[in-house]
């Protein structure tokens, strides 16, 4: 949520207009504090565009009108590949101004981080590009003042995605900002000096926000209110110490301790990215955060979906529950006592650093929220589909860092329907045994990634879970 000066609210609801000038309106993309953004089509140049229109209830407020025009001017003048580009500007019949921008067709960085912490190399690439966008603004003599993941949009490009820094609604010229400045920004991302009414700010306010964005991309959460005392590695062990140092210095309440500007911050991110020993991927215990959060939001957690408990296929003393994921493709047989909480909403192998969208996935555990916590006394099974090419190199290509200390026992899957391998650690972080498996259906070639956590080190249970698993095409 954006912190707004008193008296500022959301724009009034408006119906869908047909056109803004030559731009044919397709649909509404969203509304901010002062404006609504529409997806439109430029029929003359045959290209989609985003059109930002000042809200009716603010059209006669001179300072808001001025700020809106200023946003368009800065973006036009800066004219950078790392910023949203402004192509045109106009006025509606009722005198409201609008400006026409590049349409960012891949959502925002906030959408990505909502799925969980990002693989390190991906997070560093995004930070480099965001830093370049903010550097362009600083060179132009502008402080953004509201850098956050939802204001960083993504555009598809021939080599993947490109970052576009957007929403300069609070931007201020460096010359004006040294005097009296109204408080503005978004809690969680704004520097301590921005929340002081009348305080003076400089480009280092944006450096603080860059630090906050870095913290969120790495840990999945924005930092606590300043002063921030724990580095991101506290939440995500294994990060390079130089990255911890950079994020903590950017988040320093004393701005003289921060990197001098966006350029200095970005140069240090680049140097960390180039280090030969940079770890990749996301530690295994962070992977399911996204799935758990998504499940919580759609209330899929906390009950067993398809019951039908039977002891027919069980090991002595163990009754199995048969479960199915939301897509209906994965079926699992899980020891009944472990299936107290079930989340069926899928997962994203992207969180393992594998290029892929959301895939079917299922987690059944005694406590789904603790699944990723090392040392937690949790038992259960996770199963998620993998793109076939991702597992071609076996488990080596899926697990990038050892989830437990010591060497696992490795064995091939012996099952009439599945091939693949299982790695099993007998004692994992003092919390029982952990097994990981990448298994390929012999008939269809479908690949499934499995994890089993259990208090004892029973191979027979892992084998039975594999044997009780089916995947529909
Ligand atoms: N160029 C664009 N391409 C695609 N979507 C855009 C573009 N510009 C803005 N949007 C989307 O339009 C919506 C409104 O954007 P806007 O910048 O007006 O406000 P906001 O950032 O959501 O809120 P606030 O200004 O209050 O912080 C957002 O969902 C944003 O992602």
Automatic annotation (TrEMBL):
MF terms in GO: ATP binding; protein serine/threonine kinase activity
SUPFAM superfamilies: Protein kinase-like (PK-like)
Residues the entry annotates as binding ATP: 52
Protein EC: 2.7.11.1
InterPro entries: Kinase-like_dom_sf (IPR011009), Prot_kinase_dom (IPR000719), Protein_kinase_ATP_BS (IPR017441)
UniProt keywords, alphabetically: ATP-binding, Kinase, Nucleotide-binding, Serine/threonine-protein kinase, Transferase
Enzyme class: transferase
Protein kinase domain segment(s): 23-278
Record keyword Phosphoprotein present: no
Pfam families: Pkinase (PF00069)
Keyword ATP-binding: yes
Protein's name according to its UniProt entry: non-specific serine/threonine protein kinase
Record organism: Murinocardiopsis flavida
